Amino acid sequence: MSIAYNPSIAWQRADGVIECVAEDEASLLVRDTWESVALDEVTHIVWDFLRTPQTIEELVAWLVLEFDVTPEQCRSDLEPAMASLRQAGALVGLPLHRSAVVGNAAVSADEQEVSCWSR
Question: Is the pLDDT of residue 82 over 60?
Answer without folding.
Answer: yes
